[in-house]
Specification:
The protein is α+β, with helices and mostly antiparallel strands. It has eleven helices and five strands. Strands 1-5-2-4-3 form a five-stranded mixed beta sheet, sandwiched between helices.
Length: about 270
């Protein structure tokens, strides 16, 4: 994933491991660490999400007992200038892994409005390309070309939107060719309406299932708040997405000229 993001992006911080690098970690001083903590870990940057058999009065009383410190001010996030083209279309290297791994990423233009709807449309697209119910996935799996975990995902953060199709495969070049052929077909012909309905229902079921666990509900409440919506908004938005809308997005996305491929091969014994 990190290798694909480094190929797709020139400057956006999504290309960097959140843990940093050996060099950047070595530059951290106590003063810098405290300054960052003081800038970001403030009550105005926090959301408290509570789920379970409690009342609002219980929650407010607990907050009053906690006595949160009152700090003012906020950190300024500096936007980076990211060009539309990819930084590098191909990368190959070796690692201590059992099987080769393939990653194919597509760099998209971040949505200017209704980010939630755009993300849900993209989630449906990944399922239509190589979800477990698709003809492509069945062929790849039945012919032993990929491991069961092969699939697609969407990464959407401020200033960045991308697709990643990845997994283990003994024949990365062949799988990449089949993947790109299927994407080209879907962009040209559109997706099957019955498959669209099945994929949409599957995502709907997953959203509802996430509400069965109290801890998961609290996490979803906090996460959705920072994205400017609620879990209920997610379900309602998914329900309103149409087949034609997804096909229109397909024609505009997944352009091979804005894609990057990463192949990781198992290292030889003398490389370990």
């Amino acid at each position: 994933m990190f290798a694909v993001n480094q190929c797709l992006y020139h400057a956006h911080p999504v290309r960097d491991d959140i843990a940093g690098s050996v060099e950047s970690i070595a530059e951290i001083t106590p003063e810098l660490l405290y300054a960052c903590t003081d800038a970001f870990y403030r009550p105005q940057n926090m959301v408290l999400a509570v789920a379970g058999n409690v009342t609002m009065d219980d929650v407010l009383a607990a907050c009053a007992r906690a006595g949160l410190p009152r700090k003012t001010g906020t950190a300024e996030r500096v936007a980076c200038a990211e060009p539309p083209d990819v930084a590098r279309p191909y990368q190959e290297f070796t690692m201590a892994i059992a099987k080769p791994m393939l990653g194919v990423g597509f760099k998209e233009r971040p949505p200017e409005d209704d980010t939630l709807r755009a993300e849900i449309v993209c989630d449906i697209i990944t399922e239509l390309v190589c979800g477990s119910m698709t003809p492509l996935y069945r062929r790849l799996y039945d012919e032993g070309l990929v491991s069961p975990g092969f699939g697609g995902e969407v990464l959407s953060v401020a200033g960045s939107l991308s697709f990643l199709f990845a997994g283990e495969t003994a024949e990365p070049e062949r799988v990449r060719a089949l993947l790109l052929d299927e994407i080209a077909r879907l962009r040209r012909e559109g997706s099957d309406e019955e498959l669209f309905t099945l994929c949409k229902n599957q995502l709907y079921g997953e959203m509802v299932q996430d509400l069965e666990n109290v801890e998961d509900v609290a996490g979803a409440l906090a996460s959705s708040f920072f994205h400017g919506h609620t879990p209920a908004d997610e379900i309602e938005t998914l329900a309103s997405v149409t087949h034609g809308e997804v096909n229109e997005a397909l024609r505009a996305m997944l352009d091979t000229s804005r894609s990057a491929t990463v192949i990781i091969r198992p290292s030889q014994p003398d490389e370990a």
